[in-house]
Amino acid sequence: MGNLLTFADAAKKLKVSKAQFSKLINGKVAGVPRLKIARIGRRVLIFEETLELWLREVESCNGVH
To answer: Rounded to a whole number, what is the largest CA-CA distance in the chain?
Structure first.
């Protein structure tokens, strides 16, 4: 398994605010697939590999090469 990122770390890696990251994981950004996370209690965690795969998916959805 890969590295785990916290909510704040993942938002920082994407270079978005925590509010925008929250919208991404809750599927509230039009035209962008929901970002899958793991919740342990109140903690939000995401594997770095999952984040990278999601970014590739977003790129292909938006026609970015």
So the answer is: 37
Indicate the helix (H) or strand (E) that contains 47: strand 43-47
Pair of tokens at residue 23: 């919208």
Question: Residue 1: pLDDT band by 50, 70, 90 thresholds?
Answer: low
Which are the contacts of 49, defined by CB distance < 8 A and separation ≥ 6? Answer: 2
Burial category of 16 from C-beta neighbours within 10 Å (exposed 0-12, middle 13-18, buried 19 and up): middle
Mean pLDDT over the full length of the chain: 92
Is it the case that residue 2 has pLDDT exceeding 80? no
Burial of 30 (C-beta count, 10 Å sphere; 0-12/13-18/19+): exposed
Give the domain ranges of the chain. 4-61
